[in-house]
């Protein structure tokens, strides 16, 4: 066993305090993720008018509420249902923590569908734009997980091992950083390059489908290095809840891309 593993310091989850108000790193990740998304949508809207002025003013409210409600309900249903069944008031206690990315994704998919229906917007034109920038929020969220010393990896004696405080003192994969790289940085790089330098953005829905496929595939991969939730563990000692929830994302992404391709082919035939 290598005795020279990096020991992660006991980070303060509070980034700064303003009087009695504590602002946590996780909150900052959400705030900066939202600000980046606002800037990106504004930039895209100038190039291609997708949102009306009224829709532009209200979309962030819809996005934030969809993510928060979906993320919380996803955590309740997927990860700790029995606890919340016995303690229903805890469902609205967001400040106690507990959010599910898959739940947040389902929330925003449905929330944006309602939003587009209300403001008469092409759904996939909007989700394509959001899919390009979404990995930046994932990157910030996983960095916040690392600072919060949560969702750490499984035990490893490889050179990638680090020792997290308040654990068993054994070296573990810094799986939060793996996720930040693959689900965040790498996914964003691929999507932004495709958006800017290829014609994929002309195929409505293609970027949305690709985002779902990449996230699902990367999440399934990294879950092999991430410590399973202690109250859930692995199903049949093999697959985690995160992997189970990611499989439908890949399938949905493939279906969206196939449909996107068929729509593009029909448009070419009409020309």
Secondary-structure blueprint of this entry?
Layout: E1 6-7, E2 14-18, E3 21-24, H1 25-47, H2 53-78, H3 81-86, H4 101-119, H5 123-147, E4 162-163, H6 175-197, H7 206-222, H8 241-270
Parallel strand pairs: 1-4
Antiparallel strand pairs: 2-3
Helix pairs in contact: 1-5, 2-4, 5-6, 5-7, 6-7, 7-8
- Structure annotation, total helices: 8
Largest sheet: 2 strands, parallel
Instruction: Please report the distance between the alpha carbons of the first and last residues.
Output: 66 Å
Percentage of β-strand residues? under 5%
Tell me the structural class: mainly alpha
Spans of at least 5 consecutive residues with low confidence:
none
Q: Name the helicity range.
A: 55-70%
Overall pLDDT confidence: 89
Q: Tell me, what's the shape?
A: globular
Gyration radius from CA atoms, angstroms: 20 Å
Return the string of H and E elements.
EEEHHHHHEHHH
Strand arrangement across the biggest beta sheet:
1-4
Description:
Helix 2 packs antiparallel against helix 4 (101-119) and helix 6 runs antiparallel to helix 7. A hairpin with a 2-residue loop joins strand 2 (14-18) and strand 3. With 271 residues, the chain is mainly α. The longest helix has 30 residues, at 241-270. The radius of gyration is 20 Å and the shape is globular. The protein has a domain at 128-270. The protein has eight helices and four strands; from the N terminus they run βββαααααβααα.
